[in-house]
Fold these 2 entries.
Entry 1:
Amino acid sequence: MASSARRISKLLTSSNQMRFALPRRSGSPSFSTAAAAEVHTEAPPPSEVLSGPRIFDLVKDYEDYRRNLYGGLTHKALLVDAVGTLVVPSQPMAQIYRQIGEKYGVEYSECEILNRYRWAYEQPWGRSRLRYVNDGRPFWQYIVSSSTGCSDSQYFEELYNYYTTEKAWHLCDPDAEKVFQALRKAGVKVAVVSNFDTRLRPLLKALKCDHWFDAVAVSAEVEAEKPNPMIFLKACEFLSVQPEDAVHVGDDRRNDIWGARDAGCDAWLWGSEVQSFKEVAQRIGVEV
């Protein structure tokens, strides 16, 4: 049975990475592992090309195997992305930048702010290999001034502090607390893994959900940003589990899915493979 499960895992990993592999840009850093590199040299034989029902059957077989291995559970730990999975902004970013900025002379429309924000966010951040260092202020000052054309320090501080409050965010899934309680009661450890600055911990506390988690891995603290597998490995270290015993759930295919798999974790895409934390728990083998 073990050899069959290894074969299934290899096929699923190979299939997913061949379907979704990013073209490597010249000069860009690579976080691929040796296992991921094998995808470029080893393709499954024609008889094992995966599609439709075949993928579903293999996933079911593999998860059944893991439940048998771990006493009814597929994984010993759940890693959860923050923004876009656990929490989302309560109002559109451009709307808030505009509303707060009006008294500081911001004249750009919400559409203009959004376009300028996207442009600025995609530019290489030259001051550090990380965008979020400690409280992330230099990076966010650059983003705010680039998005709005306003460099007023009072405007920046008001906007920056707003995003540390419960007013700025809400939970994606209203059943999250109940699900995380059930998972932890069943023995599954839970951690947040997020590209964020040091405001994340006070934000989770403001949302009254900080006690739901056994650990929090913040990129600004561990000095690694998704998709770098190091942040996932740190989360597993904090939980005292092996990467292969953890599954990560997030909404970004590159940062969350590929990054977690490069670290050796399983990964499920939020909004596609799983739609709610109750569904996540059920796949792990915990009824809520």
Note: The first helix runs from residue 2 to 20.
Entry 2:
Amino acid sequence: MSSSSSSSSPVTRETVSSAVAALTKWMRSNSASSKPSLLLDERDDFIILQLSLRSIPSTARVNPYLLSLPHPLFPTSDLAIGTSVCVIIDDRNPSSVPASSFLDKAKEVGLPISEAVGINTLRTDYRPFESRRKLCASYDLFLADKRIIPLLPKLIGKTFFVKKKNPLPVNFERTGWPEQVKKILGSTFFYLRTGTCIGIRVGRLCMKVDEIVDNVMRVIDEAVEIVPKKWGNVRSLHLKAVESLALPIYQALPEIGLKIDAGERKSLESGEVKNLESGEVLDGGDEVKEEKSEKASEKKGNKEKRKKEAKDGEEEKKIKKNKKEKNEGEIVKAKGEKKAKKDKLEGQNVKGNGKEKMKKKRSKGEMVETTEKKGKRSKIRV
């Protein structure tokens, strides 16, 4: 990295050095006093640079960016660190190179590859979750043949991806594959995914403080160059271990729209803005007034919009209510007409039945009268 880019970084080497010294001291005391845990990986002795962004990146990628380090986390020469690398090879073809031959070739070129596992072995021997978890915890780094990368997520499970140990692709068909492996071992990995918080490994507990500081400064410069909008999109930078608190080494100035403490609010109302880094007081009265007027107009517009929406809602409710009442009135009217018609028919039936009864009664009376007359006549004859 050029000196110009290093000088433009707002993070100072002194700040990073004090944070690294405090963090490594805590890690050593914590590892000496704490009991071993079955839930934690014993190899989690990494120091992590935590990068927080202002906004989520619009595009994400599965494979990480490789950031070169002046002091590698997985050196090929330093045996004290004891780097262990596992390679997953493609053994689907009977003519493929066996795992033992691959390990011999790696030792010839001086690569710290400890184990080679074929994809068929991965399918059969590492099917249970517990065996895959142990495999993930047994090695620092995993590499895989480029041809089988799409098949691995289903075979290795999510444990590798959670631990950021998902196998990195290498083209083992090329004769220069050892150089590819050396480049990966000399780099750290920057995963730019759908989130605002990114962790990058920058050192290990066994490294010297100055070596870790060199790595941190290099990674900051290279990572910010990859981030969209560069420093304009960086909110904060922290250093932390796996189980420690995060130590801040950089914090961007808050945006105008964020909440401001009471002490800073007074200075803003008087037309002054205090620079948090240098302690200077900058004249910002015009900007504050403009911001206030914009907020007031926006608030007024929102209020009018809500009133209009409420008015439209009331009118719509009134229209629905009138329509409902009209429909109910029509239904009642129709029921009344139907009942009146029914009553009329019943009245006509009653009237007809009465006439018929009167007829029958009249005819019966006439018959009685005729009978009586006949009886009188017969008496007179006798």
Note: The chain has a mean pLDDT of 76.
